[in-house]
Predict the structure.
Amino acid sequence: MSGLGAPILAAVTGDDLLQTGFSGIALGCKYALIALGFSIVFKATGVINFAQAAMVLLGAYLTFNFTQTWDLNFYLSLVIAMVIGALVGVVIEALVLRWLVGESPAALIMVTIGLLFVLDNVVTAIWGPDNHNLGDPWGIETREVLGVTVPVRDLWTIGFAAAVVAAFFTFFRYSNLGLAMRAAAFDPEAAMAQGIPARRVHRVAWAIAGVVAALAGATLAAGAGQLSPATGAVALVAFPAIILGGLDSPLGAVVGGLIIGLVQQYTALLAPEYFDWVGESFERVSPYLVMILILLIRPYGLFGTREVRRV
Amino acid sequence: MAAITQALSYALRTLPPLPRPLGPGRTGPGRDLTLSYEDEVKLLRSPRHTPWRWVLLVGGLLLFLWLPTYLGDPGLRVASLCGIFAIGAIGLNLLTGYTGQISLGSAFFVGVGAYTAAYFGGQRGWSMPAYLALAALIGFLVGGVIGPFALRLRGNYLVVVTLGLVFLGEHLWNNWDSVTGGGNGISLGAAPMSVGPLDFKAGLELGGETYSFEQSFFWLVWALVAVGALLAKNLVRSRAGRAMQAIRDRDLSAEVIGVSPARYKVGAFAWSSAYAAVAGALYGLLQQYVSPSEFGLFLSITYVAIIIIGGLGTIFGAIVGALFVEGGRSLIEQNSGQPIFDPLITTRAGEPGIFTIGELNAVLFGLAIVLFLLFEPRGLAAFWFRAKTWFVSWPFSY
């Protein structure tokens, strides 16, 4: 052959692109779920919660525990895991973060990193370092959508993410507590002057973060042998997502999550074909690169509130 | 390009002044009540004024000389590792403790230093002073290039960008095979370790005695800790240091009174990276081998934990914190067989116990961070300050 045949310009077909688009959106929805948990805690309390990654891991292992060890129905297990996740969030707030209100960002970040180490290793100590099957009902089933093959668990992930986003929107738009939380996030002092209980707002934010974390954990760990202590590390990739979207914007968390998911899947598809000089498994770091580039243009992310500096 | 050269020239302008020579103490009435500015900024006044500093200085010096003849080689490796962490932590404290810029990027800069030493020392056979100086210089330059991010980004956003830097760094170490050896890592076995007649690798020969590598390396590392601490102390008690602290306390007010945030933020980044790079080079020399996974997020977090546990904004706090965190970790590892750990530690081979050694260390590490932030946010240094205040205000201490 040696160069006689027509050069193959398109090693990546249109179908590949569409397929990758689907998996990118599904991955993006997982990141969006994790990012929503980060963003609601940040918006309500001003804390960047590294321990969210451990709460994701805990949620996944709790679901595993209920389905596999206790033989409960998967959806029931998921609900119980979400309830326990909420409790864990509330306990963390009550035991640790409540006492650090008003501390410097360095202290707040480090305390959640400390919690991350404690929780992560307690989870590993309880359930061991091996890979497990989560016990989700979706397994490796697939469906044909628009001519491409999509795993059923991806469809469920997208559905869950859409439902959570809708619930968030309804909650913040129509409930009293949601209104209180928006007010407290907008101007904590004015909100307290109006009689909005800051403590309850914080507690609810942590509870919601726990619920979303458990859900995100279950979607991340779904599939054959996907559940391992490394699941928590994946949650750290949600950081570029929230930063990219803007720390205090739930909408930004969703958009950022989707962008990061798509970027990651498309670099995994395209980098080996077209720009292999970037090195192996570039998709692991491409989210950070995208984040840095966008931050240089917009220092508060795509939807973040610009900090006003008054002299 | 212009921005980069400007950033670097800013960084260079934060060079510390030379240490002040000791002058005679004040005499006459009121000599104990008033203090001239000259005396105020002195590191050491007469032994009558600052007796404890003299005791610590002389005691530290004796300990430095005596410890290698007392501790065995494993203990000395731990002590050297603590010293290496202390050097990096002093640098990070300049950035975080004194300038108020939070960075999770230390691991990247430590990696820069380690690979500089591995490439220029291990592969190309440069002499030790040359590649150590080059590591510091490259660290300084890379920090000066990263520094401008701190001008555009604030607080939490900066934290996550520096976090991204660690992952990008790990990717670079994994893929730049010709310099870093890729994922397998690279050996520093061939790196020369001699300064003039002193050969640290073969072991020092002093006054007819031959000392082991571990003993020699301990002296090298802790001598560098002393030099690094002195440099940092000079930096923070000079004009540059006061400017940095003004930026930390309220950057807007600092700017209003004429402190240039650009100059000092970039300068603090450059200096702290230079310290981290030297720590990385020494780490490589101690381990004789470096691979990318060592320069991950965990290393960065260890550094931040060291300065928080030791005490933000104090030089000696960084040293005490390094001894506490790294020394504590090694102590538990070396004593894991002791009976008191039986209910806690398991080897997973069916033994009773809850955690593996690694897990127990990580949990204790996390707990230490949380407990210190909750109960003593000023770190171990606060104990010293409290004791000092008690004695100074005696008999009215309460």
Strands of chain A lie at 142-145, 148-151.
